[in-house]
């Protein structure tokens, strides 16, 4: 997001919580501000847009806790605020479709915190007259973070659970969805930023392995007794997530409508110039 904003002429600041993050920000041409330094946050330049990405903890959203008091004291409110949440807030739907107005049935402590953080941001938005939007994200993939990497590193467990699907999104399409919202802000709205084709992981493994000229790992029947708790939680939620609202209201068009296009583009970029 920062890279695209810079390319389009924006000045970008980042509220950071560690020296490592500050170093990373500077390396990308982003100005870091210590999130724990209230005076520095108050004195920061007026923001046209503010994106909150940090996950909530037991004290709530760290972005809200640090930034809202600062912008309130400064009296300079952003024109657009985006909060990145997760499709995990919907819980399990046994393979059925969910929409932004579907009931939120979080099943894990982490997802329940997301539900609370969404509520807190929307309440702050209403109370302060801020243009807050919620963006619910599924599994994220992209260059350096895809099925290809897991296959190369031997981390791709080819589990198969009848009827199970997951939604995904290429990182570039998250960015385009956020930019579409900046151009067409809708205060208080939630949007699912997902692609058009929920699918089981073993199908992606087979697709990617074929492109790599490899044989996909052997299929392993799903057995929750053999999996760690985090994996059991992940596989316990089966749903198809609709992106219709984002397309209709934001004019969002995906560069990679499905994981097929996304993986094909990643593979092409990784192997560009590799053939003599």
Automatic annotation (TrEMBL):
Keywords, in A-Z order: NAD
> Where is the NAD-dependent epimerase/dehydratase domain positioned along the sequence?
82-192
Looking at the record's lineage, which domain of life comes first? Bacteria
SUPFAM superfamilies in alphabetical order: NAD(P)-binding Rossmann-fold domains (SSF51735)
**InterPro entries attached to this UniProt entry:** Epimerase_deHydtase, NAD(P)-bd_dom_sf
Per the UniProt record, one Pfam family is Epimerase
Q: Which PANTHER family match?
A: EPIMERASE-RELATED (PTHR43574)
Query: What's the name of the protein?
Result: NAD(P)-dependent oxidoreductase
Q: Which organism is it from?
A: Caulobacter mirabilis
């Amino acid at each position: 997001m920062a890279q695209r904003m810079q390319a389009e002429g924006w000045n970008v600041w980042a509220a950071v919580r560690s020296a490592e993050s500050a170093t990373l920000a500077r390396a990308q041409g982003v100005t870091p501000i210590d999130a724990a330094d209230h005076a520095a946050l108050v004195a920061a330049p007026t923001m046209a847009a503010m994106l909150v990405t940090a996950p909530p903890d037991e004290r709530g959203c760290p972005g809200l806790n640090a930034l809202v008091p600062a912008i309130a004291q400064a009296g300079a409110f952003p024109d657009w605020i985006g909060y990145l949440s997760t499709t995990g807030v919907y819980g399990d739907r046994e393979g059925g479709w969910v929409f932004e107005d579907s009931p939120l049935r979080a099943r894990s402590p982490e997802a329940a915190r997301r539900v609370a953080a969404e509520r807190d941001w929307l309440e702050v938005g209403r109370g302060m007259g801020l243009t807050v939007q919620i963006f619910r994200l599924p599994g994220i993939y992209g260059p350096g973070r895809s099925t290809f990497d897991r296959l190369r590193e031997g981390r791709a467990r080819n589990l198969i659970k009848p009827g199970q699907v997951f939604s995904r999104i290429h990182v570039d399409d998250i960015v385009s969805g956020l930019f579409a919202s900046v151009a067409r802000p809708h205060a208080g709205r939630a949007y699912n930023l997902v692609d058009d084709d929920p699918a089981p992981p073993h199908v992606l493994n087979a697709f990617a392995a074929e492109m790599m000229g490899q044989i996909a790992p052997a299929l392993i029947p799903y057995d929750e007794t053999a999996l760690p708790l985090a994996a059991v939680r992940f596989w316990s939620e089966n749903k198809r997530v609709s992106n219709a609202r984002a397309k209709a209201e934001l004019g969002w068009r995906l560069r990679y409508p499905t994981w097929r296009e996304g993986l094909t583009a990643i593979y092409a970029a990784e192997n560009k110039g590799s053939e003599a």
